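Support reply, case 0932

Customer input (verbatim):
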Amino acid sequence: MPAMPNDASSTPPSASRAPELRPYQTQAVDNVISHFRGSDDPAVVVLPTGSGKSLVIAELARRARGRVLVLAHVRELVEQNHAKYLAYGLEADIFSAGLKRKESARQVVFGSVQSVVNGLDQFADGDFTLLVIDECHRVSLSKAALSTEVADSRANSRRAASTYEKVIARLREARPNLKILGLTATPYRLGEGFIYHRHYHGMVKGPEDAFFRDCVFEQPLRVMVRQGYLAEPKRIDAALAFYDFSRLMPQRDGLFAERDMNAVVQGNRATPQIVADVVERSREREGVMIFAATVAHAEEVLGLLPSAECALVTGATPGPERERLIEAFKSRRLKYLVNVAVLTTGFDAPHVDVIAILRPTESVGLYQQIVGRGLRLSPAKQDCLILDYAGNPWELYAPEIAQARPDADSEPVQVECPECGFANTFWGKRDGDLVIEHHGRRCQGLVGGQQCTFRFRFKVCEQCGGENDIAARACGHCGERLVDPDDKLRDALKLKHAKVLRVSGMELKATTNGRGVPRLKVIYHDEDGETLDEWFGLETPAQQHVFERIFLREHLRAPGSGWRPQSAEQAAAEAERLRAPDFVIGRKTGRHWRVDEKLFDYSGRYRKAEAASGSTENSFTG
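Our regenerated output:
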């Protein structure tokens, strides 16, 4: 492989002065080298905040045969990564306007991405064999950026591509087999999920067209804490005073609007109580970082803290002033540092032992970045208090689940795929050892290098019968547009012989039909007392198979569990295993109503039965 040596013979003489890597850092480096010896696919290494990504980058740059470009989005990371490389006794260039250096002649160059993209002509010689992107979860890369053809690369450069895409396009124009490595503590993007497709443990995490193909190494946060490399986070959810952000709706970009957050926090009577609680819990603590929702909110918080011990940093704080305040905090002349979305990455103050979260976090990645500011080790530091006054739903130790916890009772559960046997991890609930509910959609296992095709929950294409993700808009099998649930409801409401129920309850009864034959009767209730029902036989294996195929796969709270009731009595007795649909559409056939369609996992414009009573917005009358 052109970018990496095959043995230690190419190690520079100065390597004797190199820092000693921890075992997991060595393993990360080895896995990267092994991957790039056999593949040109972009790869990711996942290491928690405080685990020493800079040292891994330095070791990879040291062992690379060709030239290496290391990119970061802020000058603090550029400087930090460069310093670790210098610790080997080697020299490297810095290309960063913020650091007032524009050097690019040496074998290894550490640069800020904006400076590099503004000076791309200095990186077009074709001798760069490895591109390293720090904090790669911040990178928005299109599928077009994967192209290795010169024509496509030039097209990428001409269009309004991201800064990283422009750098990649230029480097690949000169060297199509450029190796690209990303490093991050949080390998997911807001609204997109995981940034890579496959995990080296043999599972699928992100979409098939993800730019980064493989995660080649991951060190779990729980392991880092257990092995003593990071301080233990001790989360305390506010009990007496807190903010209620539960009604906030994200904008199209997935972020909360400042005006909406201000509507919750501005003048909120809870703020003085919250700040007093932070101060009380921090009396014996060294450094407190407070993450506020908005600038106005941060200023209010600042006014309630001990004036001689606190400071505020926002995006509008001038550079020299920001550096002065941060230095005062790091040297412990200040105890409290309030900030608004500016100190979540590239900030290193190991003495921090209290993190106070007074804002909603839109993603598990942001939540983990905030918490990570307090997990670095420091003398006499035993742990870090995580004080959450915003009811954030994210699970710190379950980063493999990139969705918010559905409710307070949910926990990570293991669900075996009935087709390939892979042990998936989803949010769910247990009754003892029995998984009675989970929120998984598709098996994450790899079969022959491809993702297993089994879907726990799905949307069926009416044209070809293919199963698709419940959020899909077009069929992945035939390409036909999948009918929008709102269109189905609207069309049904127009029909004289159709009935639409907003389901408020589902009832199962073991009974007999008009001829005295045992049957299971399923009754759907709406808020106004209307009902629709359907009947099933469960006396023979054939009937049980039909029941499983047309009822259980949609209704099971834990699909794929293998539960198949042998009688109507058993189905009714274990009805807690089943979930009700959000809407049921019935059609009149003769004198009777027949259940024609059921809508699950609904997220359209009409109100569901679980919405607040009395609401008329987006409603309908059936």
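We compared this against your earlier run and they match. Two observations from our side: The longest strand covers residues 498-512. The chain is about 25% helix and 25% strand. Please reopen the case if you see a mismatch on your end.
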